[in-house]
Amino acid sequence: MEGATFHGESMFFRFAATLAILTLISIMGIALEKQKLSLKRAISEQHYQLQALAEERSQLFLKTQQLGAPPRLLREWNSSIELTENRSVKESSEATPPLLEWRLKGAGEERRNE
């Protein structure tokens, strides 16, 4: 009978060891799942922060463009005025167009003939 009792105790020991191993594996699996979820949460939060920063960057970029526009427009406007003034100086120094010159010559000759 002692052999049967020993055999029953060894079966109980094996069952308890198997149950303990399965419990430890389950606890480790739960811990890994919790760690995975916390990492996913951190990644999700970082994506949200990235989107918020991208939105803020685009708003700041737009604001810098708006604030930089008046000086840039003034520079362009001043350069266009300078170009226009330079053209008008060149045009005034050049001879009058042929059609106007012809009319002036014709009008002057008629006056001289009268």
UniProtKB/TrEMBL annotation:
Biased composition regions of type Basic and acidic residues, renumbered to the chain: 102-114
The transmembrane segments are 12-32
This protein's UniProt keywords: Membrane, Transmembrane, Transmembrane helix
What is this protein identified as? Cell division protein FtsL
Which intervals of the chain are annotated as region Disordered? Answer: 85-114
